[in-house]
Amino acid sequence: MRTLPLVGSFRDYFQKVKEAQELNKKVCGNCYNYEYDGYVFVNELEERMRPDYLTEYFPKYIAKHGVPKMRFHDLRHSCASLLLANGVPRKQIQEWLGHSDFSTTANIYAHLDYTSKLSSAKAMVSGMLLPRSDDFGCRWEDVTEQGKIAEPDLNPIFD
């Protein structure tokens, strides 16, 4: 179990859910099930939704909205990808996703961190002596202006 901050529209949404639940308590009176009071995923009578409801309903929801087929669990991967792309450190991503071990996060999402690849490439460029670009000969130097390949000189004379 972990606690995550509610931000932006999520905070607004869950505040409305809470307000609706308070109204349901008043409307339903003694029919209201207080056993799951405070839970988010309950119906109007405060009866808990089946644990597999989201997983079961998700494919229907995305198909209805024209989203490519994916599993509900795939949203975790999308979340991690977006966090990495926005420069969030892997340790914080581990905490957000709830991985008990940092190596799990690092191993699963290492291939997504393009920024670290860029910084590695920049480090290699600054740390290595590379040939100048004008040191490379052009393999098409022997092409004539008419587009025909000139015969190579098989007996070059070196001075």
Can you walk me through this structure?
The chain has 159 residues and is mainly α. It is 47% helix and 0% strand. The protein is built from 6 helices and no strands. The protein has helices at 8-28, 53-64, 74-85, 90-97, 102-109, 114-127. It is elongated and about 105 Å long. It starts with 7 loop residues before the first helix and ends in a 32-residue tail after the last helix. The model has no long low-confidence stretch (mean pLDDT 78).
Name the structural class: mainly alpha
Largest sheet: number of strands, sense, barrel closure: none
The total count of strands amounts to 0
Rounded mean pLDDT score: 78
List low-confidence stretches: none
What is the general shape? elongated
> Helix share of residues?
40-55%
What's the multimeric state? Answer: single chain
Radius of gyration, in Å, reads 30 Å
- The termini sit apart by 79 Å
Percent strand: under 5%
Total helices: the number is 6
Order of helices and strands: HHHHHH
Features:
159 residues, mainly alpha
Quick structural summary:
The protein is 47% helix and 0% strand.
List the helices and strands and how they pair.
Blueprint: H1 8-28, H2 53-64, H3 74-85, H4 90-97, H5 102-109, H6 114-127
